[in-house]
Amino acid sequence: MTSLDDAGPNAGSAEGPAPRPGPVAGEPPVVFASLIADLMPDGRPVPRDEAVTLLRRHLGRIQNRVQQAFEAHDISGLAAARWLAAMTDTVMVGIHAYTEATIPPAPGDKPWALVATGGYGRGVLAPFSDIDLLFLTDAAMSPRGKQSVEFMLYLLWDLGLKVGHATRSRHDCLVDARGDATVLTALLDARHIAGEAGIFERFAEAFRKARAEWGLKPFLAAKRAERHQRHLRYGESPFLVEPHVKEGRGGLRDLQTLYWLARYAFNVQRMPELVGAHTPGGGLLLPEEARAIKRAWDFFWTVRFHLHLVTGRAEERLTFDLQPVVGARMGYTRHGLQDGVERFMKHFFLNVREVARFTRILEPAIERASLGPPAVVPASDKALTEAGFALADGKIIAAPGHDFTIDPVLMLRIFRMARDRGLDIHPLAFRAIVRHARHVARLRGEKEASAEFLDLLSGRDPATWLRLLNEAGLISRLLPDWQRIVGLMQFDTYHVYTVDEHTIEAVGVLAALERNELGEVAPVASELIGQLQSRRALYVAVLLHDIAKGRGGDHSEIGAQLAQQICPLLGLTPEETETVSWLVLHHLLISQTAFKRDIEDPKTILDIAEVVQSPERLRLLLVLTVADMRAVGPKVWNNWKATLLRELYWRVAEVLAGGLSVPERDVRVARAKEAAALLLADRPKAEVDAFLELGYPGYWLSFDPETHARHAAMIQEAKEEKAPLTVRTRVLDSRAVTEVTVYCTDHPGLFSKIAGALAVAGASIVDARIHTMTDGMALDTFWVQDAQGGAFEAPHRLARLSVLIEQALSGRLRLRDEIRKLKREPARLRAVTVPPRVVIDNHASNTHTVIEVNGRDRPGLLHDVTAAISDQGLQIASAHITTYGVRAVDVFYVKDVFGLKVENERKLSGLRKALEKALETAEAQGGGGAGGRIVAADKA
């Protein structure tokens, strides 16, 4: 029997059994009575209810003791997991002994063994992990044995433990293992706990011989297929910003897979057994690599232990709300410009990269070693041979006599040669590259190395090869500034990947545009990329556009300065260097203007044209913007945003071509009226003339002639029916939005009430145009989407939307009460802080004051903000609504009651305070952040 004091924190191991020293050093001595003595005083079992109480108390002491030592930082997560498993053994041994004493002997009884499998079998347990047990026999289980198994299981369930169990004979184990890789994997971790040890020893020997007979290949194929499906489910990229610690790529399960393969192939208990030339496989690991695996293993177990303790359940996903908590518990604090949570997540992703790297290196090495050393043969390709390479197992490898440490440019060249010939890089070669990556630092500014890197960056399928270069650590060695963004996470809900992974993804999008794979979703960018004269500069600009993230300050400005230093080292000409630096400096210009400014305002177009100055730079900037946005995440890009980018591009391009030069406003208005009149030629002249007198210049310049014609018909219908309110909806599939047009008498707060009604309906406003006609009627147009970023098009929801607008404008709908009922954001997003900010700009437009409001997104936010603007006596001419994760950025073009800009300082100060108060109210209503833009209630 193992007592609590015998089961120390280092007991057990994820890599196999380990010695069990005493309790944590420095822990006050606590004497625990023997569990078996408590359960069977005088050798007789106590009543079952009393036994359950004793076991529950014992289990509670175990869990509390481990938790206290862990949270006091006396032990790491791995040590805690080992200790918890070892002390759980005392419970299992006690239950087994109690069961044997309780169930009376029977004729024909046969012995059996209690065996731990799965994670428990490896000797590690997280606080809320399942406990996997195998009741093992030589032959069929006897009736008394079955009764004993049932008795034990009910005891375990009464203790609240989650138990996975199976009852098998030795023969059944081998049969099931051969047919089911899950069973086979669980049995690899099998460990005897109690009962007849000889049964387990006979099974272990038979299992070892069976594995040798079956060979590694079927098991390896099964584990690879299982991993592929797991990665598809939990994220193929190892750099997702809300990673799954256990199942995600580069996580615990991938590490365990390496152990299982080594255990299967070489019967080793611990990964360090693969270190050294005389070990199984001939020395698959260096000592420092074994230490790196141990560090990653320990780090992930510490994270996992904290996750379980913080949430009180078997939580394995590191969500936004848990990241700051776990990071703080692990001691990560702010250093310089980097928050503690960002430091923690960077460390997390660096460990993930280590695991991904070891998977790529060690798994094929285990496979190869189980088959014997590869035969290296000269390549039949003369150019390949002359470049210093040969083939092994059909994969490229450095030829004998060519050393990466002596000629480090080979480490870059091998990737290009593999790409050009459609070859895989041999795992032995990749392992050598990782081990000797530091020598690439000697190549900085070296002409051949720069040429090789630029070829990989801008050649075929660059994202694939950049990921390999990044995983091997070569990009950081060649470009030291890159290292600062490796594993760098931006603690927001907008970006899906770490900065380095986002950058590589953007390069991949650029290549997809060149291959015309995105012609439907980004037709203009796909067309323009073939017209560019500065292709190489564009690829480098995409690589460097976020290189200065995490340094504080404006990353565009700092990045532009870094580009001036990096580009010459990569062999770019002074002209290319200037282009790259300019693109990095202005890489957000197009997107910020399209989504935050009124592109119908001539000054908006002229301001961009003044910055860009060149059609080539405009083309480069648009293509870069598309690549950057599509690489942020799958939900960021949509048809509406694509449309805005295209419209902005064509307007600026027209100015740069000298074909527009923004003609006089009256001329443009006259043209718009003429075009509308042509489409209304079949209507009575008096009716057409009346309509042409209704709109102010801003109205005529905001819509195309077809829309003007629709408005004319709607207005005439409203007049004939004397309707106080008319609402029309139109689904625009090409833009993935629904257009909602509201025609009614204008009055203060109209925009706010409509926005509130749309929020209650579950519609998200992405853009708006607000027009008061010359007869005092309002003609307001909103473009909305559903919660998934698509057109708001379900018929019943459109009908409800119209009803809610009518109820809101008539006062029959209590908007604030209804908005408070709307579904709030998930708890995991509330940890992401969004400082409220109000910017008032009187220079962005010649005719309007531009207000930019930044705040936490939530249902009804737009209602509150626009109500504050209306309460200040201002008229909203247009609104531009953008959401970046949980951050809302809403821009309004406003005038005062006299149709002028707001330039009085006292008035501006009052406006700012009112908006800040509205944003503070939003924070309070959100409970520190309750999200969903104007979206929510009607999601069903």
Automatic annotation (TrEMBL):
Cited InterPro entries: ACT-like_dom_sf (IPR045865), ACT_dom (IPR002912), HD/PDEase_dom (IPR003607), HD_domain (IPR006674), NT_sf (IPR043519), PII_UdlTrfase/GS_AdlTrfase (IPR013546), UTase/UR (IPR010043)
Role of this protein: Modifies, by uridylylation and deuridylylation, the PII regulatory proteins (GlnB and homologs), in response to the nitrogen status of the cell that GlnD senses through the glutamine level. Under low glutamine levels, catalyzes the conversion of the PII proteins and UTP to PII-UMP and PPi, while under higher glutamine levels, GlnD hydrolyzes PII-UMP to PII and UMP (deuridylylation). Thus, controls uridylylation state and activity of the PII proteins, and plays an important role in the regulation of nitrogen metabolism.
Protein name: Bifunctional uridylyltransferase/uridylyl-removing enzyme
Domain note: Has four distinct domains: an N-terminal nucleotidyltransferase (NT) domain responsible for UTase activity, a central HD domain that encodes UR activity, and two C-terminal ACT domains that seem to have a role in glutamine sensing.
Alphabetized SUPFAM superfamilies for the sequence: ACT-like (SSF55021), Nucleotidyltransferase (SSF81301), Nucleotidyltransferase substrate binding subunit/domain (SSF81593), Poly A polymerase C-terminal region-like (SSF81891)
The keyword Ribonucleoprotein appears for this protein: no
The keyword Magnesium belongs to this UniProt entry's keyword annotation: yes
ACT domain boundaries: 739-816, 850-929
CDD domains xref list: ACT_ACR-UUR-like_2, ACT_UUR-like_1, HDc, NT_GlnE_GlnD_like
Region (Disordered): 1-25
Entry GO MF terms: [protein-PII] uridylyltransferase activity; phosphoric diester hydrolase activity
Cofactor(s) the protein requires to work: Mg(2+)
